[in-house]
Amino acid sequence: MTPGNALDRLTALLSRLPGIGKKTAGRLAYHILDTDPAYAHSLASELDNLHDAIKRCSRCGAYTESDPCPICSDPSRDRALLCVVERAQDLRVIEESREYRGLFHVLGGLIAPLEGVGPGDLSIGKLASRIQEEGTRELILALNPTIEGDTTALYLQQFLKEKLKGSPLEITRLASGLPVGGDLEYADRLTLSRSFRGRIKL
Amino acid sequence: MTPGNALDRLTALLSRLPGIGKKTAGRLAYHILDTDPAYAHSLASELDNLHDAIKRCSRCGAYTESDPCPICSDPSRDRALLCVVERAQDLRVIEESREYRGLFHVLGGLIAPLEGVGPGDLSIGKLASRIQEEGTRELILALNPTIEGDTTALYLQQFLKEKLKGSPLEITRLASGLPVGGDLEYADRLTLSRSFRGRIKL
Question: Matching PANTHER family, A to Z (chains A, B) (predicted)?
Answer without folding.
Answer: RECOMBINATION PROTEIN RECR
